[in-house]
Amino acid sequence: MTGARWLAVVGVLAVLLGLVAVLCLGVGSEPIGPWRALRVALDPSAGTPGEATIVRQVRLPRVALAAAVGAAFSLAGVAFQALLRNPLADPYVLGVSSGAALGAVGAIALGLGGAQAAFLGVDAVGLAAFLGSLGAIGFLAAVAGAWRGIQVHTLLLAGVMLNFFISALIMLLTSVVSLERLPAAHLWLMGSLARASGYRDPAVVGTAVVLAALALLAHARPLDVLALGEETAEQSGASPGRLKWVVFLSGSLLCGTAVASAGSLGFVGLIVPHAARMLLGPDHRLLVPAASLLGAAFVVGADAVTRALGAVTEVPAGVVTALCGGPFFVALLHTRGRRAWL
Q: Under DSSP, is residue 33 helix (H, G, I), strand (E, B) or coil?
């Protein structure tokens, strides 16, 4: 991979993300053309006061959050797929998002949702979701530390066990929560960007994306070698133990902040990294920024679909991503199965 190719690919994907964002600014229950919406976003005097409010206070923060969340889930997918050496791995496999969902549902069940429950400007449900993800991270770190090292199969089995246990707790909470609070819990579990307001959440998730991307890019070559096995990576001079900690913590930070801001958006961390790998190859120097930009564009587009249907009903963005990811996952399994027979 040359520097010119890296710049060309990243530049094209950045332009693609910009075009998708501009097009999606004009989508919603109140029709505003994309280019007019862009002018209003850059200059409030270009439109009516109502258009300025819709574009600058509603749609622009939502597009920014969708881009940040999409990049976070996709980058987490790249990290966990490198860690588990499996292109079918998903960021949710380690149970971090389940912990975040448990925290959010627990806060909703206790009646802490809404602006009146905000603490220091942080929504109580989002804060509970992030604390839940930290609890899952702490549990997995304790399990891994008990064996004096992070082993792939240990993390995988611990994550599966944690997912089953937390799923049971979530079902218990949703079965006893009051009927007026149940729709909010379901909306959070399905994933939605409807609660986006202001730029605090996009800034938090975007900061996590930048920090994790820098950490992964700094270890891009060792990640490439890790795909050949831990023994090969160690013989090449890399430290598999240290590399696993970097990848695990980076992916967990991304999942925690993204789920805390938008709920559970399924399949983004699976389909986007694998699509980027099929199109551009497995080199993590290019895969890390490419998957981030593709994931951002994908979630921005998926959220635009939900807003386009807003006149009828608010469809959660997680439903749209899952509807896209389900057929892709089946096709991916079919392709891998055919290759296994050849």
A: coil
pLDDT at residue number 17: 94
* Residue where the block lists tokens 């057929």: 327
**Which residue from 263, 287, 264 is spatially nearest to 277, judged by alpha carbons?**
287
Residue 57 gets which letter from DSSP? I
Q: What is the pLDDT of residues 261-298, one digit of tens each?
A: 888 887 888 888 888 888 888 889 999 999 999 999 99
One DSSP character per residue, 314-339 reads ---HHHHHHHHHHHHHHHHHHHHHHH
| pLDDT tens, residue by residue, 176-201 | 887 777 877 777 788 888 777 778 88
Question: Would residue 1 count as lying in a domain?
Answer: no
- Inside any domain, residue 60: yes
Residue 6: inside a domain, yes or no?
Answer: no
Cα 206 to the chain's mean position, in Å? 11
CA 198/CA 58 separation, integer angstroms: 8
303 SS3 class: helix
Q: What are phi and psi of 271, to 5 degrees?
A: -80, -35
Q: Which residues contact 90 (CB under 8 A, 6 or more apart)?
A: 77, 80, 267, 269, 270
Question: What one-letter code names the amino acid at 336?
Answer: R
Q: Which domain holds residue 160?
A: 18-336
- CATH number of the domain residue 176 falls in: 1.10.3470.10
Asked if 80 and 272 count as a contact pair (C-beta separation under 8 A), the reply is: no
